[in-house]
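Minutes, project huddle
Topic: does the predicted pose make sense with magnesium ion bound?
PN asked that the exact inputs be recorded in the minutes so nobody has to dig through chat later. Recorded below.
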Amino acid sequence: MSEGLAPYAADESLSRGRLYKEPGPTFRSEYQRDRDRIIHSTAFRRLMYKTQVFVNHEGDLYRTRLTHSLEVSQIGRSVAYALKLNEPLTEAVCLAHDLGHTPFGHAGQDTLNDCMRDHGGFEHNLQSLRVVDDLEAKYADFPGLNLMFETREGILKHCSKRNARELGELGRRFLERRQPGLEAQIANIADAIAYNNHDVDDGFRAGLLTLEQLRTQELFEQQYREVRGLYPDLEDRRLIYEIIRRMIGTVVSDLVEETRRKLRASGVRSIDDVRDADEPLVAMSEGIYAQHISLKRFLNEHLYTHEQKLEMTRRAQAIVRELFAAYRDDIGLMPPEFADRAAAGDEDGRARVIADYIAGMTDRFAIKAHEALSG
Ligand code: MG
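Predicted holo structure (tokens), as shared on screen:
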């Protein structure tokens, strides 16, 4: 057992290991090595130019998938540290969780899923796994990044039953309704905490959300009152930031305390006990969870479906749909490494290569590729 870690933390000496055997690292832990491989991957750098909510060129201060992933990792690491869990593993999963995301955020992903309907569909979590297992071509001895089992388990947050059946050991938990390790559970919730809070910030900055609207949310209103009471004359920009940092603090503290309580009550003694538990053990208290979900719904209603965003959504859908159709009609429009792989496959295989190519694009690359098609 690694020193200082809780007994139910992921421990590399008990890991299910890597698909391809490799000599162990000299100065780092195995999970630190995973994190470092993710940071050096091409897919990670591309996150810089992929939409989180706002398209990359809409403004330099908005979150991109890269800064989102860094914020998820910050929250994840804090929680892992507080609970004596494996911090480098949590960090690795957080940094990799969106590697499979298409350009243009959810609009891009839903459209690509539509295009792939007759060819096995497109799931961005599964695509993140494809990126680290297959698509990154960096090492002489194996495809992908050859990450540890627990890192891959964490990256595959959701998966359809049909796809789970084809994934062997990694897919089994979706068929048997079992849980992933605690580090993966943390990454999952850290993602939701990060986007709720940074979308409030970006939405307010963009002028799509007002203070009055935000004050209908209990999570926001409680902190608003407290900050206003302490600093009656604070200007709006600092007010919002002061509220957001307190909202994150409130939710994270609650998450740590509630998870501690659940871990004690469940009596788990190992990562396999955690996997066998009836429900995830990393969780917020009921009250805070209700407020967190309410804020999520509010953002869904007022930000993600704002008329200004919908216009971008429609344009993104058209770009992805038309790129897919063009490559299906002429695979030679793709670079040779994709065209060759597409030529070697059957109809489903060809569609999958096109989806891999489009999913890997940044927003601006997709826009340029689309412009090139229409001349
Ligand atoms: Mg995310």
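Observations noted during the meeting:
- The mean pLDDT is 94.
- Residues 100 and 128 are 4 Å apart (CA to CA).
No decisions taken; revisit at the next huddle.
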